[in-house]
Design brief:
Blueprint lengths: L1 E7 L12 H8 L3 E7 L12 E2 L9 E2 L1 H11 L8 E10 L2 H9 L2 E5 L9 H5 L3 E4 L9 H12 L32 E2 L2 E2 L9 H19 L1 H7 L1 H8 L2
Parallel strand pairs: 1-2, 1-6, 5-6, 5-7
Antiparallel strand pairs: 3-4, 8-9
Helix pairs in contact: 3-5, 6-7
The structure holds S-adenosyl-L-homocysteine.
Length: 238
């Protein structure tokens, strides 16, 4: 079973949205599991302090390396081979490819920081991998951990009703997805593109490929550059 272990100062936030809909049904059917570890259980003193002032001064507080290490060491088996992901705006951008790779493994350890972040020394000392969910700053790692977890869990075998719906999606081919339509056929004077109602599957496929390429060129040309020749070749032959 795919296992997520989350280290957080706010255990009550979980499973939260992960307990609902696709991921929640998967959880109930034991297609994956989530274990929550309260970092504060390893805090210091009567107040279970987990943070301290930044060395060198400046605003905010920093999560202590010794406290986080104690929490990680108590919560994880030495033989645990799962990637240890520290959610951080300074991390490598999270991608669909990374979600696929994580989903193909045994699970993930997700470490949520708060305040200004964690003492830098913990990263090397416990082999953490920093991952960012985008170029913006959240107030804590929990929502980021949920996003990473959700992206992985929906890829697990049996979680999504129709497996093929995972293959054609945005990013899977280095492209954004083509647009979708459903009934009614005409709505507020706007019609569904004729080709989609033609029943001609080859034509529909070609239309969707062209639409995906067009929207990607317009909105995310960086994706085309990133995937390089393969996509350009497809475009040339059109
Ligand atoms: N001072 C830090 C921001 C701290 S935000 C900086 O400028 O880089 C508090 C915590 O929220 C972070 O330590 C991280 O765990 C989480 N977080 C904030 N933004 C995030 C993002 N874009 N991706 C992943 N985690 C994020």
């Amino acid at each position: 079973m795919w296992r997520a272990t989350v280290f957080t100062l706010f255990p009550e936030m979980f499973p939260g949205p992960l307990g609902i809909s696709l991921s929640g049904a998967g959880l109930a059917r034991e297609l994956w599991s989530i274990e929550i570890r309260d970092i504060r259980a390893h805090g210091q003193g009567r107040h279970r302090a987990v943070d301290d002032m930044p060395a060198g001064g400046g605003p905010g507080m920093v999560i202590r390396a010794d406290v986080l290490a104690a929490s990680l060491d108590a919560g994880l088996d030495e033989a645990d081979r799962r990637p240890r992901v520290l959610l951080s705006p300074r991390g490598a951008p999270f991608t669909q490819a990374r979600a696929r790779a994580l989903a193909a493994g045994e699970g993930a350890v997700l470490i949520c920081a708060r305040f200004e972040g964690v003492d830098e020394r913990i990263v090397a000392a416990r082999g953490l991998e920093e991952v960012s969910i985008g170029d913006f700053v959240l107030s804590g790692g929990e929502i980021a951990a949920m996003a990473v977890c959700d992206a992985c869990v929906r890829l697990l075998p049996g979680v999504m009703g129709e497996q093929s719906s995972g293959i054609e999606e945005s990013f899977e081919a280095g492209l954004l997805e083509y647009p979708h339509y459903t009934r009614p056929r005409e709505w507020e004077g706007r019609a569904i593109p004729d080709v989609l109602l033609s029943g001609d599957h080859a034509k529909i496929k070609a239309w969707r490929e062209a639409a995906a390429l067009k929207v990607t060129r317009e909105r995310r040309p960086d994706l085309l550059k990133r995937t390089g020749s393969e996509i350009k070749d497809q475009a040339k032959h059109r």
